[in-house]
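User: Can you help me understand a structure? I only have the sequence.
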Amino acid sequence: MVRTYANFDIVREIGLTLPDVVESTMYGAPALKVRGKLLACVPVNRSAEPNCAVFRIDFERRAALIEAHPEIYYITDHYADHPTVLVRLSRIGPDKLRDLFDLALQFVSSSKPARSTGSYASRDARGARSPRRGRPKSGNSGGRRW
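Assistant: Let's start by predicting it. Here is the structure, written out as tokens:
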């Protein structure tokens, strides 16, 4: 009998075997990230079907996957503008899941670095300019309040 994987546990299990992949959260849901960038997560938007995962992948490969296997891969309006694909976990086996991880890792590794979540104070400590640079510190500011 073939086992079906109807939850995020198999995604986590396979993902954590890959280099630099760590457990995290995204909007309070379980997620996997690589070097701070989202790789896969449990979808939190109600438009996603139950027992699915979201993987980051480029738009062209997403279209090809959906066309080739619409019973496994799909997209909703909410996710359409994002480089992601929704995956029905109960319909995908471990081998295809590993292949999808490879595609997602390629995409995430080639995309821009993750945004900094640091505060202005931590940026200043690293030598970045203060956001108030050039503004008067005190005295007559011409009636303006900076």
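Now, to help you interpret it: The chain has one domain: 9-112. DSSP finds five helices and six strands in the chain. Let me know which part you'd like to focus on.
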